[in-house]
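Aim 2 progress update. The chain analyzed this quarter is reproduced below.
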Amino acid sequence: MKKMIISFSLIFSMALFVISCGGGSDKKSESAPESTEEATGSDAGTASENPSYDPNRGEGKFHDVQLSDKLDAKEAEEGEKIYDLKCSSCHKLTDERLVGPGWHGVTSRHKPAWIMNFMTNTDEMIDKDPKAQAMLEICMVRMPNQNLSDDDARDILEFMRKNDGVK
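Predicted structure tokens:
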């Protein structure tokens, strides 16, 4: 019975992580503000409710994450290990939702800084970011803070890029 409770708790925690890591309709192009409005079903009201929040940047320490056109295979391999340990119980690598949204296409829906901020600053992003809030409404489960380091988040981002076909 104790093992069953621990297993359920672990699965639930992973599900929360998965939910918070994907979804949305943000593009890498400059059309992000329109995507934010579509994802939340609202208009510029979010900006007026929290004028200090920039929905195109996300909340956190990452502002401009530079990505190479070529995949960093070592980082992607490390990211896959972290995914297997902390993410796979809630997120699938396809576009199918498990507990959280599937990861396929996540790097085209969200900017790299947004993804890394969400992984490392989950609670504040869910509290302030309209896209994160919209995902929470769809998935109904709050992603748990996985206590990822900046390097872990970068490795997972690179694994997400690999999953999206970057070579």
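Residues 23-49 have pLDDT under 50 and may be disordered. The two ends are 45 Å apart (CA to CA). These observations will guide the mutagenesis experiments scheduled for the next reporting period.
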